[in-house]
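W.,

You were right to be curious about this one. When I first looked at the sequence I had no strong expectations either way, so I just let the prediction run and decided to look at it fresh. Below is the sequence, 174 residues in total, followed by the output.
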Amino acid sequence: MRRLDKGAPLRAAIKAAGLDIPHLAARTKELDPTGKGLSPAYVGFIAGTGKSAREDCSERAAELIAQALGREVTALFEPVFFTVVESTSTSRSVTAVSGKSAARKAAPLPEQLLDQRELSRFLRKSPSWIDAQIKAAREAGRLWPGLHYVGRSRRFDPRAVLDGMREQRTQVSA
């Protein structure tokens, strides 16, 4: 499950219930049929806003939190049908292509717009690299491919970004 609006409805529900992270975690323990509940750290990751905040959590965690707050799960979380799973391997996957030279195995493309952090993970580039590319495109009088402004936040279409990077590579090499 993915928290809605970067966790804002979740934090509002916690505040409205008069709970804090440790008390919410204790409440999940009371409601969990196994008696385990969720740790305060895990609840903090899910409800947080800082660098350690997580957008995704298990369905069990979402259900326990929603139940502890007396809310519907869909008021706080949305189901995730497709996620990009990062490899924990430090080496890159390489596969032979029709007996010719080896090429990196293509990762599946997400079917949704990504925020800058997700795009940087997907491209294996730093967020500052993305900022520099957007700035260079703006100075050249064009919009960076795949960039969409949603309110005050930037979202990226990974297919358009990759197409734009390929086009830029062919222009530089020509």
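Here's what jumped out at me. Confidence is low (pLDDT under 50) at residues 91-106. And, maybe more interesting for your project: The first helix runs from residue 8 to 16.

Coffee later to discuss?

I.
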